[in-house]
Amino acid sequence: MTDPDEGVAADGTIRTGARRDRVPAVFEDVLTDAVDSVGGSGASLYLYGSVATGTARPGASDVDLLSIDLTDASAVARRLSTRYADRCRGVEVAAAASGELAGDTDAAYGLRAFLRHYCVHLAGPTPPLPFRRTPPTPVLLAASTATSATTSGDGDRA
Q1: SS3 call for 45
Q2: What is the mean pLDDT of the chain?
Q3: Does residue 156 form part of some domain?
Q4: Predicted confidence band at 149 (pLDDT cuts at 50, 70, 90)?
Q5: Which of 19, 35, 134, 156 is the most exposed place for a label (fewest CB within 10 A)?
Q6: What's the structural domain count of the chain?
Q7: Regarding beta strands 91-96 and 63-68, do their DSSP bridges make them parallel or antiparallel, or are they unpaired?
Q8: Which chain positions lie within coiled-coil regions (predicted)?
Q9: At 48, which CATH number?
Q10: Are the beta carbons of 15 and 140 closer than 8 angstroms?
Q11: Strand-strand pairing, 44-48 and 120-123
Q12: Are residues 34 and 65 in contact, defined by beta-carbon separation less than 8 angstroms?
């Protein structure tokens, strides 16, 4: 299922339904464990996807996390996927470095816009970059179209 709140707001900026209060209760233990995994490492952790928009289906959806500066993201993903196999298809932890947020490249701009509009901050420091509401540029629209084309009917990656 796609995010019914995704689109362009009246002021011309990106609008999504990703919010902490929309997370289905069945996934709370997964998120608590994920946050505990980050601990005092200095890494940041964000939630995105169907769990963040409240459209996830227990047992069928995956839990999508984005880490910034987490050195063992794949190990965390494996551990959480095994532990919560009864609740979700898997726990994916994408890894990025804080340096990827800096600069004027399309990739840096896209990552900042993704964090600002599609992610829910769970733990760690918030990068010290401007996170203003963003209008959809051709780069972001292309990325959104590519993401839509690679999702299954329930909004999760195929």
Answers
A1: strand
A2: 83
A3: no
A4: very low
A5: 19
A6: 1
A7: parallel
A8: none
A9: 3.30.460
A10: no
A11: antiparallel
A12: yes
Return the bridge partners of 48, or none. Answer: 64
Contacts of 122 (CB under 8 A, 6+ apart): 31, 34, 35, 38, 45, 46, 47, 65
End-to-end, the C-alpha distance of the chain in Å comes to: 12
**Would you state the structure tokens that stand for residue 63, as one six-digit string?**
């839990």
- Select from 59, 67, 32, 62 the least CA-distant residue to 50: 62
- Give the residues across from 120 on adjacent strands: 47
* Bridge-based pairing state of the strands 7-8 and 14-15: antiparallel
Q: Given phi > 0 = left and psi -120 to 50 = alpha, else beta, which region is 82?
A: alpha
pTM exceeds cut of 0.90: no
| Residue 87 domain flag | yes
Instruction: Identify residue 4 by its one-letter amino acid code.
Output: P
